[in-house]
Amino acid sequence: MASNTIAARTGGGPRLALGRLLYALLWFPSGLLLAFVLLPMIQMGADQSADSLGAVAAMPDVRAALWLSLESAAITAIVAALLGVPLAYLLSRGTGRWKGLLEALVDLPLAVPHTVAGIALLFVLGRRSLVGAALAPFGIEFWGSEAGIVAAMLFVSVPFMVNSARLGFQSVDPRLEKVARTLGATPLEVLWRVHLPLAKRGIWSGLVLTYARSISEIGAVMVLAYYPMTAPVKIYDLYLQTGLQQSSAVAVLLLVASLSTFLVMRFLANTSWGFVRQ
After folding, report:
1. Is residue 41 situated within a structural domain?
2. How many Å apart are CA 23 and CA 78, to the nearest integer?
3. Residues 73, 214: contact at Cβ < 8 Å?
4. Is residue 126 part of a domain?
5. How many CB atoms lie within 10 A of CB 278?
6. Across residues 4-28, what is the average pLDDT?
7. pLDDT value at residue 61
8. Is residue 42 in a domain?
């Protein structure tokens, strides 16, 4: 009763009711957005039968395409981390006009149409390009190979890795670095024992986003390396040949496989098993 009296004196009752009303109103556009995202996926899955899913899962080329997408996306995420985390660390510590320019360059693949990205990569990694011709004698070819698939995935997804890791590094309190340096730690030790452990959630988020974006890529992959077919390319190919029947079944299998790996990666990101142990 005393708490009710205090709330009445301070106007807490009307404010609390207004806050609840605002909270309820916010759920309306949020629910519309969630429905827009989920309903097509739910409807597509509901239209599939166990027989249709089993039939496409038994196709060797479908299984190969699914595995290739998962494998290539995982390789892409690892390469993006190896190359993107150092750049993210530098951007998190940089200042001045050059930092803004570098951040814009990192974000550039987000604004480039993915077919354009594939065409641009052909000029660098194609058979007659300078890099492609130089690497061909060593057995490294990007046209029609998994290396080309990874290159295309990396181009379109690396901004997610760099930006997520950069935000992770920026969230580290600068005073911790000063304390570590005062205690005699070298810059490398500060990076390894302070920045990486504290920024690991941002790095893991970048890995998950890079992996997710890589699995879904089709435009740049089709231009640079149409074969072997990844799952999105195979789905598009089946759609052109058979319509929705088989292509939607493969799409459901891809969603299930992707969701399973996402759950595993999110679980690792939310536990003590990060990119670097604290």
Report:
1. no
2. 40
3. yes
4. yes
5. 10
6. 70
7. 92
8. no
Q: Which residues contact 206 (CB under 8 A, 6 or more apart)?
A: 80, 81, 84, 85, 88, 160, 161, 162, 163, 164, 165, 168
Q: Are 261 and 70 in contact (CB under 8 A)?
A: yes
Q: Do 145 and 246 belong together in one domain?
A: yes
Tokens of 196: 């990486």
Query: Could you tell me if 191 and 65 are in contact, meaning their C-beta atoms sit under 8 angstroms apart?
Result: no
> Phi-psi category of 139—alpha, beta or left, where left has phi over 0 and alpha has psi -120 to 50?
left
- Which pair of structure tokens corresponds to residue 124? 């660098």
DSSP 268: H
Q: Quick check: 199 and 169 in contact, CB under 8 A? A: yes
Per-residue pLDDT tens digits for 30-82: 999 999 988 988 888 888 888 888 888 899 999 999 999 999 999 999 999 99
Rounded (10°) angle between helices 244-269 and 60-93: 40
**Mapped to the 3 state alphabet, what secondary structure does 67-122 carry?**
HHHHHHHHHHHHHHHHHHHHHHHHHHHCCCHHHHHHHHHHHHHHHCCHHHHHHHHH
**pTM > 0.70: yes or no:** yes
**Are the beta carbons of 80 and 206 closer than 8 angstroms?**
yes
Query: How many of the other CB atoms lie within 10 Å of CB of 103?
Result: 16
Structural domains counted in the chain: 2
Q: Enter the tokens of residue 146.
A: 């998994």
Locate 31 and state its tokens. 């629910």
Full residue range of the structural domain in which residue 15 is found: 1-32
Statement to judge: residues 133 and 209 lie in one domain: yes
Which residue, chain included where needed, has tokens 């890079």?
210
pLDDT digits (tens, 9 = 90+) for 104-157: 899 999 999 999 999 999 999 988 888 888 888 888 888 888 999 999 999 999
Asked whether residue 98 falls in the same domain as residue 206, the answer is: yes
